Every structure is written in C-alpha cells, then in structure tokens.
Amino acid sequence: MEDKLMLMIPGPTPVPEQVLLAMAKHPIGHRSADFSRLVADTTAGLKWLHQTTGNVLVLCSSGTGAMEAGIINFLSAGDRVLCCENGKFGERWVKLAQAFGLDVDLVQAPWGKPLDPEAIRAKLEADTDKQIKAVILTHSETSTGVINDLETISGYIRAHGALSIVDAVTSLGAANVPIDAWGLDVVASGSQKGYMIPPGLGFVAVSDRAWKAYETATLPKFYLDLGKYRKAAQKDSNPFTPPVNLYYALDAALKIMQREGLENIFARHAKLTRATRAAIKALNLPLYAADEVGSPAITAVAPVEVAAEDIRSFTKKHFDILLAGGQDDLKGKIFRIGHLGFVSGRDVLTAIAAIEAALTGLGYSNFTSGAGVAAAAAELAK
Questions:
Q1: Which ranges of the chain would DSSP assign to H, the alpha helix?
Q2: Which cofactors (predicted)?
Q3: 16 exposed, middle or buried (CB, 10 Å; 0-12, 13-18, 19+)?
C-alpha cells in the first residue's frame, strides 16, 4: 500500500504531522527578523533539551558532520586522544581521529558489551603527564543496542582534565543527557533521531572548557568552524545559508517535546525499551545486549533458528514495517528494532505483532502465538 511504510529503525525516525506541516511553510529570508526570532526560539529549546546554559550550535549536516566538527574545532594534529570503541560508531570516531592526524589510543569492548569505565579510568590515571587531550566515545551505540555509562566515564575524564567529546546521536531526546550536571564538553547529535525531524541538521553542544581549547586548536576548518556559528548565534543567526524549513520543523518538534516534558520523554523511552525486550524474550529470541545495558533507542535481536534478514524482509513485504539490519560483521546476524523519537506503545505492539507473524510465516515455532504481544502489553500497562 502506498504511503504506509512504518519506520521502526534507529533513524530516520517517524515524524509527527505537526512537524511535517511546519516544513510545508513558504521559506523566509535567512537574514530576516522573522528568521532571527525562529533561531532564538529554537536555541532556547535546544538548551532546554540538552540541559545546558552553554552553546548548542546548529549545522547543516548529518550527525557525522557534528562529530567531525567536534574534533576539528578543539584539537590539533598530533594530539593524543583516547577513543573508546564498542561498535560501528565508536569505530567511526577512531577513523575520524586518524583522518585528522591525531595520536589515537584505544579502549575497546566486544560488540554487544558496554565500555568498561574502569578501563578508561586506568588509562587516564596512567597518563601522569596529561598527554591525553580528549576522550572520545559514543553514548548509545546504535549498531548493537548498547548504552555506555557516560555519567561515570565523564567523571573520570573531568578528574583527569581532558575534554570529553561525545556522540549522543541516538541518546539525545531518548535518554537523560544532562550536559552541565555531568560536565560534558562537546556533545554531537543529529536531527533524524530523538528530535523527530527529517535528516539534515547536526547539533553540537560546547562547554566553556572546550571553547578554551578552541583558541589553540590548529586543525583546518572553514564551513564547520564552530567559532563562526557561535558568533552568529549571538545575533540569532547562522553564518551560512541554513535549511530554513528544517528550522520550522525543529521549532515544532521542540515545542512538542516541551509539552511532554523531559522526565516523561525519558520514561516513555524506558517503557518502550522494557516492552520490546520483554516481547523478544517471550518469543524465545536472543537479545544481543543484556538488559542492564540496553539502549533506550534501539533493541538488537540475534535470532538463531531463523534468519534475521528473512524476518526483516517478511515484515517489510507483508506489513510495510521497516526494521534495521546488522552492520559490518553483524550483517545478517541481527535485526534492530528502533523505538526512539515519535514512537508510542501502539507502534511497539504493531511491530511485535508483525514479527510474530513473520516468525510463523517463516516456520519458526518455538513460541506461543501471541506471547510477544502479551508480554509487551503487560509492560506498557504498568
């Protein structure tokens, strides 16, 4: 059926009708007073969402563009950094750091497992000469459905004195990321995740400590020079031509989020996570990550008796529901259920029912019909 596709992936995520309608407005001049008012409103909303009084700057980019900006604005070639990797997006940090000539040290954990904060602490405490300039990590590892203990890790980073540079692409708007309370320095995210708007905007939150590092950073930059964005933001503007209609979308989405409230947003995502994981267990399918480290944005499933890609194909063909596949070495081994952003309990129940039908259609019988939906419903009713 046309126009019936349901996104249950970690991004792009579903977009509310109010946001889509806001995008349909005629563009306005990006140097006009009307646009300045729009920038002022969205800036206030972004600071609320990020729980910070510092800068939250808006780029015309994906989350990866925000990540790159997080490196080139605060570091210099040859700087020693500690990259923490336990999935594809942790690997992306390593590739970015190496591309810009940084001296990369690693803390790694197997895919599907969380980073060990104590391993990071040990590396930092061993650096008595304070050669490590930044610790770079992913909060919610989208490729595996694991969330890392950012609060504990950030405390160790602050004790050392290095900068924290964080990919919060699938945690911002789904999990609590209190930037000021945790003392985070550089936090990157993207619009097509918890923000509930289409791809195209990247966000970078910057602390005062990071701005001090900016003054001596020598990596080349122009379009992603955050100093330009900070200067423009002081005048409720943007240094280059921004996607005006995505600003309309951002404004509408932030207002929806503010009406729901931060605590309710986090509680909703936590409940959807519990419901999804309970359903998968009831279907006797293995979860890829343990409950205590499951991301509030994405649940990864590692079926054994039926192929992950067959499940994805069945739900897409018969129900117009899109589930995410595995990446790199996990391709064909897992499927991932996104439950972040504009997702409700009804969406989770629908997706689980489709997965149950797919399992039956594919000849998998190691579950009681309706068990997944019942388990999800029980969690959602709490």
A1: 17-23, 33-50, 63-72, 88-99, 117-126, 150-160, 179-182, 208-214, 226-233, 244-260, 262-282, 308-319, 345-361, 371-380
A2: pyridoxal 5'-phosphate
A3: middle
pLDDT in tens, 119-160: 999 999 999 999 999 999 999 999 999 999 999 999 999 999
Q: How far apart are CA 116 and CA 148, in angstroms?
A: 8
CATH code 3.40.640.10 for 17-259: yes
CA-closest candidate to residue 61, choices 201, 206, 207: 201
Name the 3-class secondary structure at 265: helix
CB within 8 Å of 114: residues ≥ 6 apart: 86, 146, 147, 148, 149, 293
Cα gap 241→245, rounded to integer Å = 12
pLDDT digit string (tens) for 181-236?
999 999 999 999 999 999 999 999 999 999 999 999 999 999 999 999 999 999 99
Please determine, for residue 1, whether its predicted confidence score (pLDDT) is greater than 90.
Answer: no
Tell me the longest C-alpha to C-alpha distance in the chain.
63
Q: Count the Cβ atoms, other than its own, within 10 Å of residue 153.
A: 26
| Sheet with 298-301: strands ordered across | 6-8, 321-325, 335-338, 298-301
Which residues are annotated binding-site positions for substrate?
336
Structure-token pair, residue 112:
């599907």
Homologous superfamily (CATH) of 261-380 is: Aspartate Aminotransferase, domain 1 (3.90.1150.10)
Q: ω into residue 12 within 30 of 0, thus cis?
A: yes
Considering the chain, tell me which residue range(s) the CATH 3.40.640.10 domain(s) occupy.
17-259
Contacts of 222 (CB under 8 A, 6+ apart): none
Examine the pLDDT at 266 and tell me if it is beyond 90.
yes
Measured CA to CA in angstroms, residue 92 lies from 205, 223, 330, 365 at distances of 19, 21, 16, 39
Alpha-carbon gap, residue 261 to 258, rounded angstroms: 5
CATH 3.90.1150.10 segments of the chain: 261-380
Contact status, residue 168 vs residue 191, Cβ threshold 8 Å? no
Q: What is the model's pTM?
A: 0.97
Q: Which residues are annotated as a binding site?
A: 336
CB atoms within 10 A of CB 336: 26
